[in-house]
Design brief:
Blueprint: H1 5-8, E1 22-30, H2 34-37, H3 40-53, E2 63-67, E3 76-83, E4 86-93, E5 98-105, H4 111-122, E6 126-134, H5 142-157
Antiparallel strand pairs: 1-5, 1-6, 2-3, 3-4, 4-5
Length: about 160
């Protein structure tokens, strides 16, 4: 695949399928840089820049806040940004050098770019990455989905060809 200017700049170029809601990237990072995990401005900047870099549309500014857990070591930062396609969230645990990130979208995006961007942003030493295809039967374009269903119904309703004797 030829590298485009958009891809070199870190922007995803994607094509959507006609059915299926979209991917949900869940990234858990271990051994992260503690200073990065407690940097509210960094979390804000990631949530502000990442949507554009993966071809999404922010519909509000990011919201980032500090929280304290029941146990003192469970404090951290949480942030999210709503995008027209769904959301991106980040939860950090600086004392445990851990971050959890979710990117859920109704359109495909460059999962590898997003993962590498986040690994670098937090200095992750180890990563658990899971991707779910959400809403696998969700019709993105109702007329196209209707045509597909009708064609499939015609295909399965045809009488079977007689078997040779």
């Amino acid at each position: 695949m030829a590298e485009t200017d958009a891809h070199r700049a870190g922007y995803a170029e994607v094509a959507d399928e006609m059915i299926g809601f979209g991917p949900h990237l869940m990234l858990d990072g271990y051994g992260c840089d503690r200073k990065k995990l407690q940097d509210l401005n960094l979390i804000y900047r990631i949530l502000d820049e990442l949507p554009t870099r993966i071809g999404m549309t922010k519909i509000m500014p990011p919201y980032v806040f500090k929280y304290s857990g029941v146990k003192p070591e469970d404090w951290g930062l949480s942030g999210f940004v709503l995008i027209a396609e769904s959301h991106i969230s980040i939860h950090t645990f600086p004392e445990k050098h851990f971050v959890s990130v979710d990117i859920f979208s109704c359109k495909t995006f460059d999962l590898e770019f997003a993962s590498e961007y986040l690994k670098g942003a937090f200095g992750m030493e180890k990563v658990e990455c899971n991707v779910l295809d959400r809403g696998t039967e969700f019709p993105k374009e109702i007329n196209g989905a209707t045509r597909m269903v009708r064609a499939e119904r015609r295909r399965v309703s045809r009488p079977a060809a007689p078997r040779p004797a």
